[in-house]
Structures are given as C-alpha cells and as structure tokens.
Write a structure and sequence with these properties.
The protein is mainly alpha-helical. The chain has helices spanning 7-27, 31-46, 51-58, 63-70, 85-94, 104-117, 120-128, 132-135. The longest helix has 21 residues, at 7-27.
C-alpha cells in the first residue's frame, strides 16, 4: 500500500530518505539536521554555478530535493561565486535552513553523498566549474 496514494510522491520520499540516510551514515547526525545541511549545501553549490549547469545538476536530484535546491533561486543573480572555502562554508552556515555550526567536514560529507547519488560525469562538470579552493572540499568520486 502506498504511503501517500501517489507513486511519484512515494518514490521521491524514498529517494530523499536514501540520500539522508547516506548523509547520516557519513556525518553521524539526526535526519532533521541532515536535511538542513544537505539543502543548505546544495543551495550554496547552486549559487556557484552558471544557470545551465544549475539546471543539468538539478535534474539529477530526487524531486523533493530538487524543489529544495531551486527554492528562492533567481537565475538573473547567478552565479554569485564565493571564491574561497571559508566563504563557501560560511554561506552554508548562514543559509536559513542550516542548523548549528557548519564545518568543512560537514560540507564535504554532503558532497561525498552527491558523489554516490549523482552521475559521475555530472559530478565532474560541477566540480570543474568551482574555484580550486572550493573544489578541494569535494572528495574525488
């Protein structure tokens, strides 16, 4: 029996829970904190990318995460790059959905999950679009 009555909703909930479970396993946190860290990091990453790459990367995300990723996105104001690691991590921490102190390790944990769940060719394109200092946060696939 379907939880929501709509297979597409059940599928995106299941996919999103898989991402969150992966992050919980890698970073050792509760599901609520994992959600906030995941969405804050994805939005900060989004703001580093040109609009066409934002769209291609977003298409790889489960529907529920995709909605959170695009929340408050304005392509006319992007990319809005943070040129160094510290400002990128600070931006993740300043995101309204983030909770607590965000570390480089936490951001790297999210990017490790992206490596597991997104096509490797897309991961390479997104990583290569980042400044070297920020790219250093993203573990190799």
């Amino acid at each position: 029996m379907s939880d929501t009555g709509l297979d597409i909703f059940d599928k995106t909930l299941q996919s999103t829970h898989i991402w969150l479970d992966d992050l919980k396993e890698v970073h050792r946190q509760d599901k609520q904190s994992a959600w906030h860290l995941l969405t804050a990091t994805l939005r900060t990453l989004r703001d580093q990318l040109p609009p066409d790459l934002v769209a291609h990367f977003g298409a790889q995300l489960p529907m529920l995460l995709r909605g959170a990723y695009y929340e408050q996105y304005d392509p006319a104001n992007h990319p809005n790059p943070r040129r160094d690691r510290a400002s990128f991590v600070n931006r993740v921490e300043e995101t309204p959905t983030a909770t607590g102190t965000v570390t480089e390790e936490a951001v790297s944990s999210v990017l490790r999950v992206v490596n597991q769940r997104v096509d490797s060719g897309m991961v390479d394109k997104v990583r290569n679009a980042l400044p070297d200092d920020i790219r250093a946060l993203w573990p190799a696939a």
